[in-house]
Write a structure and sequence with these properties.
The protein is an alpha/beta fold. α1 crosses α2.
């Protein structure tokens, strides 16, 4: 048998809906989850008229709660609802918070070996319709046989455990990090670095009629560490995790277009930047033959501030390292579970376009039931002009559409961690 040559894979572009507040008062309270995915797919096609819809080989959509308007093999149903040809297949995928990240790495692997040329991958979570764990019936043996720590079934309890395990991760540090995330997001929004990746969504309210969601609903730009210091600690009496230093419950969808580099060039995509918490990153770095000093930009999911701080302490990073979430993160914008992995990639793509001095970037996140996922990306716009200086000005440069090559990815399990 002739050996196959693996293809390079390009992240052509990613888009997302605005993220909304979960619950009856949120902007997507009466909007279906699958319709959010439909808007994302249609926007990707609208932005890429050079791509014939029949050239799409697969649609992979993640959801952590696959029931109701997030069920029925949502990758296939959303593709049909978006108007893709019936010949385009689709599937649903679940790796809890890393669902969309896994959707990307799964179809990227298919492209690399020649099974696909073009694919769409993303995720959705309507936490207002489907609260986390809704309808789940965990086998009692998980706890009885000590297969997982009991706290692994509760994200907030896991975050409290991190504070217990590392006393240096004080609540004051978590509150300060959370406030900084809000401020970085507000600065990025004001600088025009968030809105270009959003697709407006028509909304309906029985009380208020029709509307148009064009902005994220959850950021609190006036947040201060002092202002959130005394918030209630819902996961433990006198605890340290609060609504102020955790990501809010969120509704939203993300999606991205992936293609082999050859196909992307054939279709004339405008800009090609080529195409996985602590142990996942170490594993991915080892696979890529890199160290964290080689990483010029880091997008880490802020499920809870303390989880990010555990990452920074392990790798010897300052809490305010400028490589870390330069546009803010989930504490500000929200964390719609399975869709968040692609949001990290969308933001890294835009940051890559602004930073040709940066060669490698990292997207990483904690995952439920003790897992973690990381993807290391290479920026083909890297000019080699100087080292990747993390203190360089991040406010300049054009926000061009961008694609990237995945240098390495990893998903691992870690004892007692879930997010």
């Amino acid at each position: 048998m002739t050996a196959r040559t693996l293809k390079d894979v390009a992240f052509v572009e990613g888009v997302r809906t605005p993220f909304g507040k979960a619950g009856a008062k949120g902007q997507f309270a009466e909007t279906r989850a699958d319709d959010l995915v439909v808007k994302v797919i249609r926007e990707l096609l609208r932005r890429h008229p050079e791509l014939p819809p029949e050239r799409i080989d697969e649609v992979a959509v993640a959801a952590a709660t696959q029931t109701g308007d997030q069920g029925l093999t949502i990758g296939r149903t959303s593709a049909l609802l978006a108007g893709l040809p019936r010949s385009v297949p689709g599937f649903a995928i679940d790796r809890m918070c890393a669902g969309a990240m896994t959707a990307v790495t799964t179809v990227a692997s298919g492209i690399a070996v020649g099974a696909y040329d073009v694919a769409i991958a993303g995720g959705v979570e309507h936490m207002g319709h489907h609260p986390m764990g809704d309808g789940a019936d965990p086998n009692p043996r998980f706890v009885a046989d000590r297969l997982v720590d009991p706290s692994a079934l509760n994200m907030g309890a896991t975050a409290e455990n991190l504070h217990d395990r590392w006393p240096s991760l004080a609540k004051q540090r978590a509150d300060a990090f959370a406030a900084a995330s809000q401020h970085k997001y507000a600065a990025a929004l004001a600088a025009g670095k968030i809105t270009p990746d959003l697709v407006p969504v028509a909304t309906r309210s029985t009380e208020q009629g029709w509307g148009l969601a064009t902005t994220d609903e959850l950021p609190r730009p006036d947040t201060t560490a002092e202002g959130i210091a005394d918030l209630r600690t819902p996961f433990r009496p006198h605890g340290r995790v609060t609504a102020g230093n955790a990501s809010p419950l969120t509704d939203g969808a993300t999606g991205c277009l992936l293609a082999s580099v050859d196909t992307a060039a054939e279709l004339g995509h405008p800009e090609l930047m080529g195409t996985g918490p602590i142990p996942a990153t170490e594993k991915a770095l080892a696979r890529a033959g890199l160290g964290l000093d080689d990483i010029g930009l880091i997008e880490i999911n802020e499920a809870f501030a303390v989880q990010v701080l555990a990452f920074t302490d392990h790798f010897g990073l300052a809490d305010d390292d400028p490589r870390l979430n330069p546009y803010g993160g989930a504490i500000a914008v929200g964390h719609p579970l399975a869709s968040s992995g692609v949001r990290l990639m969308i933001q890294l793509a835009r940051e890559f376009a602004e930073r040709p001095d940066v060669r490698y970037g990292l997207t990483t996140m904690c995952v439920g039931l003790g897992m973690g996922g990381s993807v290391i990306w290479e920026n083909p716009q890297y000019t080699g002009a100087g080292a990747a200086d993390p203190a360089a000005d991040m406010t300049t440069g054009t926000a061009a559409d961008a694609t990237r090559h995945a240098a390495a990815s990893a998903t691992v399990t870690t004892e007692g961690e879930a997010a």
